[in-house]
Amino acid sequence: MAFAQCRACHAVEPGKNGIGPTLHGIVGSTAGDVPGYAFSTPLKNSGIVWTREKLDQWLSGPMKMVPGTKMVISVPNEAKRKEIIDYLETLK
To answer: What is the domain partition of the chain in residue ranges?
Structure first.
């Protein structure tokens, strides 16, 4: 599963942050709005709402989308990004 690489930093359970924030409920949420996680100022101030399109853009290159963000890993493969986003949509 494409999400396996994400698990190194992200949990999927509500309220369980790790190196990165939990991804539970991310689709439709506002970037930088997970309680208990210290987001970068650029991401907190971005105003991004995590739609499928924004998540695809983010996974393609987080540092290009929001310079100064903490996330440095990208997913260049479009099919893998789609698989990850499909999975994220189930986390409600």
So the answer is: 2-88
